[in-house]
Every structure is written in C-alpha cells, then in structure tokens.
Amino acid sequence: MNPQDSARWLAWCSRLQAIAQTGLTFAKDSYDIERYHALREIAAEMLATGSGAELGKIRDFLGQDSGYTTPKVDVRGVVFRDDKILLVRERSDGTWSLPGGWADVNASPAENVVREIREESGFETRATKLLAVWDRSKHPHVPAFPFHVYKFFLRCEIIGGTATPSSETDGIDFFAADKLPELSITRVTAAQIHRMFEHLRNPSLPTDFD
C-alpha cells in the first residue's frame, strides 16, 4: 500500500473508531451499545490489517480512550538564538526535531511546551507567542496516525539553563535555515521549520492555522 492510500485507510479507520467511541459514550440502549462495540471491532480489524500490528494491541490501544472523540494535542517549542533554531536529536532514531510532545492534562499549552523544552533540551524558557496550529493529517508527516492530532507551535525565549541531553534526546544544537539536519518527519517537517524562520524574520505575522 503506497503512503497516500495508507493515509486514507487510516483516516477511514479513525472515523469509524470516532463514531464507535462517541456512540459508546452516549448510547443507552443495549442494542445500540452492542452495535457500537461491533463497529469498534471492525475499526480494530481494519487497522490491524492495514498496519500489520497485532489485533490485540490495536484493541488495547483503542480501548484506552473514552468519552467524546476529540483530537490529541502535540506541542512544539520554537526557540531561536543568533538567528538559528533549537533542535533536539531523538535517541529512538537519531533524527532531529523541535522539542515537544503530547500535551498533558491540567496544564496549559504554554506550560506544556516549557516543560517539554526543559525536559528534552535542558533550557528554561518562557512562551511568548502561538505561531501555528496545524492539523497533522494535512501535512506530509510519516507515518500517518490512526487518530487525529493538532500541532501547536509556540515561540519561546530562553531565560536560563544549559544544553543537557535527556532519556529521549542525545543531542541539542541550534541550526541555520539552510543547514537543517535530517529531521524526524513524524514530528516536524522542513516546511514547518522554514515557516518558523519566516515568523522570526517578520514578527508581525499572524498565527498560522489550517
């Protein structure tokens, strides 16, 4: 299956799962509940077939979420120094990304991104501006995810700390726009980083969104 078809397949599975999960949240009739469970099982079987993952693991993954289905939130910190952007190298695959990750509950986007930057790079920062909110599925990230993700890019300023590797990162450095390293495309794309440099050059630009 080529990447475009795979993304469409995952999108269909995600829509089925969302219908099932939302239905299980609000359904009262026992027959409706049974049907929504069956629909979620179909979504799990489709995901397992399309991804090659074990059906049991897919079932467990889909069963972790509950309530009305909403997108997950990924936050990315955009930090510049001397017209270069801060990137961290992922231990998992040796590629580079903006520091960030999944947003935790009971914390604001700014609090989440400041925490992620500190944990992954060692720098203490202050969030100053929301630069972009993008729908991950509308950008060429690979692989596609079986759930919907909104990506928040927040400009942050360094107020302390020093470059320090973490359990997730083994490299911290600043890069010019024309000398970017190999990127972790599942987390950030070159086009997104270049757009961040445009925000640096033109601070009056409004927040980008899909």
Architecture overview:
It is a single chain. The protein has 210 residues and is of the alpha+beta class. It has two domains: 61 residues, no CATH class; 138 residues, Nucleoside Triphosphate Pyrophosphohydrolase (Alpha-Beta Complex), CATH 3.90.79. The chain is 38% helix and 27% strand. It contains five helices and eight strands, in the order H-H-H-E-E-E-E-H-E-E-E-H-E. Strands 1, 2, 3, 4, 5, 6, 7 and 8 form an eight-stranded mixed sheet that branches. Strand 1 and strand 2 form a beta hairpin. Helix 2 packs across helix 3. It is elongated and about 60 Å long. The two termini are 27 Å apart. The mean pLDDT is 92.
In quaternary terms, these chains amount to: single chain
Order of helices and strands: HHHEEEEHEEEHE
Helical residue percent band:
25-40%
Ranges where pLDDT stays below 50 over 5 or more residues in a row are none
CATH class of the largest domain: Alpha Beta
Strand content: 25-35%
DSSP strand tally:
8
Q: Output the number of helix runs.
A: 5
Q: Write down the CATH topology of the largest domain.
A: Nucleoside Triphosphate Pyrophosphohydrolase
Ends: how far apart? 27 Å
Q: What structural class do helix, strand and pairing data support?
A: alpha+beta
| Biggest pleated sheet | 8 strands, mixed
Average pLDDT: 92
Number of structural units classed as domains: 2
Can you name the CATH architecture of the largest domain? Alpha-Beta Complex
